[in-house]
Amino acid sequence: MVRKLALVVGAMIEGRTPNTVELANLLPLSTDRQDMREQWLRRLLKNPLLETAVVMEPFARAELAKAARNGQTILLSMDQTDLGERMAVLMVSVRVGDRALPLAWLAEEGSANIGFEGQRRVLERVLAWLPLGANVMLSADRFYPSAALFGWLGAQGWGYRLRLKRNVLADTGEGEETTTGDLAQDVAERYLPGVRLFACGVMTHLGILHEPGHPEPWIIAMDCAPTRAAVLDYAARWSIEPMFSDFKGRGFELEDSQLEHADRLERLILVMSLAMGWCVRWGGTTP
């Protein structure tokens, strides 16, 4: 299995394509028959013994250990990308320099946002790989925060910078329930400790920052005292954007994949992730 996976990763680095026909043609197999190459690759991608978490664990542990060196906070990002309306992929990545590397992911058929149960699955996978005593901060876009996610993060002791939508119920303790959008209305900066969110009253802190030239303010929930610097920590999430670009239009063209089963797409992403990780490591050691 390891040898087979290595052959496909090599083909992916050369071809940078999600097209299994094109990818199969690049495989160094001892056959000239294209149909045999394609069957070989299809069998690999549907093989349940090729478990993404098992394969990724040593690579993920190594990257997380590097990120935690000298007591540094591990910066994780969670985001979703869609392949048209056919498939949605939720991914957790770790920041490495100015970019991110994928750690764990989940694919689901359809284009809807993947809910907390899917988030919990990928987050707990990463949780199991963390170095003992590591400090962690998770950033996530406004489609993900929920009472359940806040509760999970609190239970793990993780820091967080979670962007909120404008329609989230908020109680600042001043006797009147409002929304995060109302709190951000016509303000350039605002910092609110001890705010309760959602109908269940999740306690957090809010920082609001609307910089000139930006169409919308950042409304950021955080685990620490709200300050401008803490709000700007959210910018660490942008490291996931060039990673998604590498998966898609600027690199492996994942959006062109015609795979129709989520488990097979997850294994194709595994191949791409290993190829991406190898390229990043090789590039980082080249003079």
Automatic annotation (TrEMBL):
Domain Transposase IS4-like: 122-275
Example GO biological process: DNA transposition
GO MF terms, alphabetically ordered: DNA binding; transposase activity
InterPro entries: RNaseH-like_sf (IPR012337), Transposase_11 (IPR002559)
Organism superkingdom: Bacteria
SUPFAM superfamilies: Ribonuclease H-like (SSF53098)
Protein name as it appears in the record: Transposase IS4-like domain-containing protein
